[in-house]
């Protein structure tokens, strides 16, 4: 099976609507599909403006770029693959986005060393690598924060009891859901 050296994703809404960004063809890198992003950002339409966003396991950066395009105050992209991280930086330069940064390294290590809270966290780790549960355990979030989780359909992550599910959709291959962090009392 031959792969093209670069692939493209399209930003769906906001300031950069219809802009196309490149991302490298890397095994396991699967940008969140347009229809899933459209659903997610419909769920988030009143929560993005001014939000501090963490895009852990960023990959192509589809979710983080969409958030920036729709008015997020800041986005931190975490990406372990050096080629993908470099492309994220190039895409930020192309868009002239100054309110974002890319951390090229292991998301779990970053989460352990940076316990600062975010308003919105995207957790869409590579499938089949058992990264979701450790990432969930590393998060530091304040009440009212939102967490988007995308995972294999057969996976049932152990979520904190004080998280309330806002929305969820399931397909044969994967599930995606949005949670709101409640208070722990």
Walk me through the structure.
- With 185 residues, the chain is an alpha/beta fold.
- The chain has a single domain, classed as Rossmann fold (3-Layer(aba) Sandwich).
- It has 5 helices and 9 strands, in the order ββαβαβαβαβαβββ.
- The strands form 2 sheets. It has a 7-stranded mixed β-sheet, with helices on both faces.
- Strand 6 (120-123), helix 5 (132-138) and strand 7 form a beta-alpha-beta unit.
- The longest helix has 14 residues, at 82-95.
- The protein starts with 5 loop residues before the first strand and ends with a strand.
- The mean pLDDT is 91.
- Belongs to the methyltransferase superfamily. RsmD family.
Defining traits:
transferase; 25% helix; alpha/beta; 185 residues; EC 2.1.1.171; seven-stranded mixed β-sheet; methyltransferase; Rossmann fold
Give the structure's gist in a few sentences.
This protein has 185 residues and is α/β, with parallel strands linked by helices. The protein has helices at 34-43, 62-69, 82-95, 107-113, 132-138; strands at residues 6-10, 20-24, 52-56, 74-79, 100-104, 120-123, 146-152, 163-170, 174-181. The protein has a single domain, classed as Vaccinia Virus protein VP39 (Rossmann fold, 3-Layer(aba) Sandwich).
């Amino acid at each position: 099976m031959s792969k093209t050296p670069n692939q493209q994703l399209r930003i769906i809404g906001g300031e950069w609507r219809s802009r196309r960004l490149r991302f490298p063809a890397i095994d396991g890198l699967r940008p969140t599909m347009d229809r899933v992003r459209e659903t997610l950002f419909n769920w988030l339409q009143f929560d993005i403006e001014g939000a501090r966003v963490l895009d852990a396991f960023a990959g192509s950066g589809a979710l983080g770029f969409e958030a920036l395009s729709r008015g997020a105050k800041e986005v931190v992209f975490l990406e372990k693959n050096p080629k993908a991280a470099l492309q994220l930086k190039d895409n930020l330069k192309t868009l002239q986005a100054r309110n974002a940064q890319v951390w090229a390294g292991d998301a779990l290590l970053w989460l352990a060393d940076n316990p600062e809270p975010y308003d919105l966290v995207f957790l869409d780790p590579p499938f089949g690598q058992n990264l979701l549960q450790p990432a969930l355990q590393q998060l530091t979030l304040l009440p009212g924060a939102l967490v988007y989780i995308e995972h294999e359909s057969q996976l049932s992550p152990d979520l904190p009891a004080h998280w309330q599910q806002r929305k969820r959709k399931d397909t044969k291959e994967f599930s995606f859901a949005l949670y709101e962090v409640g208070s722990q009392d």
